[in-house]
Amino acid sequence: MKRKDEIKQYTIRNIINYRKLDWSISDDFLYLTDVPEIFEPFEMKPHYFAYGIINSGSITIEVDYQKFLIDERSLLIYRPEQSVKVIKIEAGTKGMFVLFTKKFMDYLFESFFSIAPNSFLKNKFGSQVVLSPKDHSKMNTLFTRTLDFLIASEADNERWIYSAKSMLLALINESDFLVNRYIENRNTIHQPREEEIGYNFKKLVSKHYLTFRNIEFYAQELNITTNYLHKIVKSQFHQTPAEIINMALLSECKVRLSDSSESISQIADHLQFTNLQTFSRYFKKQTGETPTSFRKHSILIDP
């Protein structure tokens, strides 16, 4: 795995060029009315903010060494200096995204953070929020109206850029208001040492969750007590260490079940369950359905 400081710095222009997008208006702002099936296969460190919703299909992505399956009704967020790697995009995935630099928003951005210091754009909010059907519908409406306006008024001039900044700020503000309820205790201030421990814990989980699922291993690797690890992780990520380890395992289960190249028995063996029955019981307890039923309605269709 690459060191954090060796990850490729990535700009919006890099995305435009790599994915061959028809966009020349700005190198600091980009909106997507659909999800491109072409994506970068390498780890990158974005120089921009990105967030959006998935309406159908799925994206498998790693953010700060934590794997997420972003599917229907999910909001995906990542920020500058996070490590990001897209693993897979299901063919036909539908969604809407905005990408923008802090430079693009300039003084408007500072104004927004002054009234929303704990915005979802801050690193400690997390990278995935699963919205309720009602909230997803609201978010979909916000994105649709914003992007419809930008498309209808699109022109390569300073007036359009000004309008785009204003519309984007309105979208961010309304989005923040909507998703605010999904995270509790958002006013916690974290010290640099605690942030480093939290980052290193997630990095360790991404490497060892198949082999080590006990908290003691991670506390020992970080040279701290299990109680201190629990306190730091719970404070930063609003989940216990055990929940994060389990989420990594469950996400891997879903990703593998969504690909028909392996049998369910092979998946159970690869994920180091003692047998197929143990795997099936685990998966049903976590999701409410059997591996077989999950696979039936979520097989990924490769492009």
Secondary-structure blueprint:
Layout: E1 8-10, H1 12-18, E2 29-32, E3 44-46, E4 49-56, E5 58-63, E6 66-71, E7 74-78, E8 84-89, E9 94-100, H2 102-115, E10 128-130, H3 133-152, H4 158-179, H5 192-208, H6 215-222, H7 226-237, H8 241-257, H9 264-270, H10 276-287, H11 291-298
Parallel strand pairs: 1-3
Antiparallel strand pairs: 2-9, 4-7, 4-9, 5-6, 5-8, 7-10
Low-confidence stretches: 1-5, 185-189
Q: Spell the H/E element sequence.
A: EHEEEEEEEEHEHHHHHHHHH
Helix-and-strand structural type:
alpha+beta
- Supply the number of structural domains: 2
- Using the coordinates above, name the CATH class of the largest domain: Mainly Beta
| Strand order in the sheet with the most strands | 2-9-4-7-10
Main β-sheet description? 5 strands, antiparallel
* Second rung of CATH, namely the architecture of the largest domain: Sandwich
Indicate the radius of gyration in whole angstroms: 20 Å
Helix content class: 40-55%
Q: Briefly note the CATH topology name of the largest domain.
A: Jelly Rolls
> What separation lies between the terminal Cα atoms?
28 Å
Q: Mean of residue pLDDT?
A: 85
